[in-house]
Amino acid sequence: MLEKIQETAAFLKGKMHTSPETAIILGTGLGSLADEITEKYEIKYSDIPNFPVSTVEGHSGKLIFGKLGNKDIMAMQGRFHYYEGYSMKEVTFPVRVMRELGIKTLFVSNASGGTNEAFEIGDLMIITDHINYFPEHPLRGKNIPYGPRFPDMSEAYDKELIRKADEIAQEKGIKVQHGIYIGTQGPTFETPAEYKLFHILGADAVGMSTVPEVIVANHCGIKVFGISVITDLGVEGKIVEVSHEEVQKAADAAQPKMTTIMRELINRA
């Protein structure tokens, strides 16, 4: 595994002419941020040794390098999901490659269903903590010596980045929520009973990504900031039939606000 990670990193280093310490996983709601990257150069996932390929509609498949404001960045346009049939090692492989490339801070976004009755569709939720509800743990197996066998997760989402994001939201007049994200395997959207269970467990939002990447980033010593766009509601009395297209539509509507917060935060981090 370590050999593959290092092989992939060596390939990318041979193509890179910038030195980013900041990475972004352009999940749902952050696609337009790619348009703001300047001096950019791109590498398709299909051209990268050992890299999985995204199969989900709405998820492109390439790494983008360049500048966002005054910061050198790398961005993943298209992430990998457990429900696509990948193992957790494949889902999180790019994060380990980031560590080899010298990434220090990771920004992630996602679409999620809100289980908190105070939430509305289109709200942005800054992730303060998470619950891992996946059936396979991304650190299962032999420990890769990027971090300890039993890594601490008491601050999985960096508190200083959360503070700065709140400051930016206030400056820009953008409403943000705070909450706990629960990651599940998918690909089904939740039943009313499952939404109820996740709320009882303490989750404010539920989605099918993010948690594995954040666990591995923490193991690698990479600071994390995460944000969800609430694209549907799993609140009793407000649950309606939902489709991937409707989720995408709600995320697209929230995109300008999420992009503003992320752009500003990356440049102040």
UniProtKB/TrEMBL annotation:
Annotated Pfam families: PNP_UDP_1 (PF01048)
Swiss-Prot/TrEMBL GO biological process terms: nucleoside metabolic process
Pathway(s) where this gene product acts: Purine metabolism; purine nucleoside salvage
Keyword check for Transcription regulation: no
EC numbers for this chain: 2.4.2.1
NCBIfam families, A to Z: PNPH, PNPH-PUNA-XAPA, PRK08202.1
Function field: The purine nucleoside phosphorylases catalyze the phosphorolytic breakdown of the N-glycosidic bond in the beta-(deoxy)ribonucleoside molecules, with the formation of the corresponding free purine bases and pentose-1-phosphate.
Family named by the database record: Belongs to the PNP/MTAP phosphorylase family.
Name listed for the protein in its UniProt record: Purine nucleoside phosphorylase
